[in-house]
Design goal:
2 copies of one chain form a homodimer. Chain A is mainly α. Chain A is 63% helix and 4% strand. In chain A, strands 1-2 form a two-stranded antiparallel ribbon. The first copy, chain A, is globular and about 55 Å long. At the A-B interface, helix 1, helix 2, helix 5 and helix 6 of A face helix 1, helix 2, helix 5 and helix 6 of B. Chain A binds a DNA duplex through helix 4.
DNA sequence: TTCAGCATGTCAGGAGACTGACATGTTGGA
DNA sequence: TCCAACATGTCAGTCTCCTGACATGCTGAA
């Protein structure tokens, strides 16, 4: 029989889940005054860095399904934070862009989130920070490599 | 105005979310043959390591609310994987324990999850692994320290 | 040219988790 | 002693996200 996970305090997976949960909770708290959920902020952030992407591309960047992104976009569009092309210039993909109000909201939200990230990593020097980022990326790669269809 | 998050590929928060998502997806896939969700497995794992805890304590260990844990426990109890005391020996807390079937299922699931974790960290030596675990724990501590009510 | 395969947008239904609320049992201070 | 504060269990409602399904538009191979 294979060995189990072992003591939770020594499990990498548990530590990862714990850190992600703590970050998400802190972001939710920090973004609440702006009336933004974490998913909505993520949507704006990706959109700000990649203007004109389709909803499906956006969904992959935010780690949700395109169906969920659809609902998310409807809400943000109604609030006037983004606008979607009425017709598809090519294929079925409808390019999406931030409005001026969307860019302003994003700037504020991004500053808040940057503050949360800084608070989380205040004890890290730049080398340690880059090392942690690289380690996390290595985990993602290792899991996606062996992913079976 | 404060600086924003910056390029997503350089954001620690984004990398953390990505890693946690990848791990969760891999665990879901690996546990599906056993008919267990990640939350159900987490519940069994914590229960295996801390027999007799209350549902509320269990909820904190699994990072869900006690209301969600309540529903989770009902399902696992019906499947005969755990049993709850009918009356509270002290206060209102009802001690919960794994049954023999629960321990068997946990052993199998824990082996599977350990395999996923190993796959994720196959490129890490034991020092790098411990360093990553410590870094993640430091992130959690930094966020919980400044947590306001 | 034709069509099978694929990506996208959208609608409908369901599962899981959360917030709100209330009852119950314990604990520590006035 | 008495009660306010707290923790726990539980019920109800809601929200978010997911899976399933279908229509539409491009693409590459036969």
């Amino acid at each position: 029989m294979t060995q189990g996970v072992g003591d939770l305090d020594r499990s990498i997976g548990y530590a990862l889940k714990q850190a992600a949960t703590a970050l998400r909770t802190a972001m939710e708290t920090a973004l609440r005054p702006l009336g933004l959920t974490v998913s909505q902020y993520s949507c704006l952030e990706v959109l700000g860095q990649r203007p004109g992407v389709s909803a499906s591309e956006l969904a992959r960047g935010v780690f949700v399904t395109r169906q969920s992104m659809h609902a998310l976009l409807l809400g943000l569009e109604e609030r006037g934070l983004l606008e979607r092309a009425a017709a598809a210039p090519h294929g079925r993909a409808l390019p999406t862009q931030l409005t001026a109000a969307g860019r302003a909201t994003l700037a504020e939200a991004s500053g808040i989130v940057a503050g949360v990230e800084r608070r989380m990593t205040v004890a890290f020097d730049s080398a340690a920070l880059e090392r942690l980022r690289a380690d996390l990326a290595a985990c993602v790669n290792a899991l996606s490599d062996h992913a079976e269809p």
